[in-house]
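Researcher: I'm preparing a figure for a lab meeting and need a structural model of a single chain. I don't have an experimental structure, so a prediction will have to do for now. The sequence is pasted below. Please return the structure as tokens so I can convert it later.
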Amino acid sequence: MGTGPENKSAASLPTWEEKGDLLYMLHELSRLMATWFDQAVHHLGVTHSQWWMLMHLHRHNGSTQSELAAICMMGRAAAGELIARMEERGLVFRINDEADARIKRVFASDAGLALLGSMDEETRRLYDIAFARVGNTEFHNARSAMAQMRLNMLDTLKP
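Model: Understood. Here is the structure written out token by token.
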């Protein structure tokens, strides 16, 4: 008999409480990292919501306002107001979707990407702090587990 996870006895599987504890720690870690980063970039005049939206646009430039609202966990009206404030600062711009003019696509401007780039030093410091005393194997195991958990959740969410 193999020794892989599929062959573990039910007694060795994480309990409901242990799973809850892990998910609580993930949420708390995310909150702590966001708080640390907000403090580190405060001098740049960037809010957490602006930083998060720029980060998302850096990876998915041209997202719709509705997609950004969902990613930033805010209502569409609040996202629209945030985007408008960022547009006033020259950090983003909106254009109509080619297929449906009712849909606005949001793009990070050169100034927005430059602002994001100016946060690189703080980002590296945050990563160094967060991953201090985490070994290579631990890192890759955690990354693999979180990637699978993410896929599990994406598979169950309604579009």
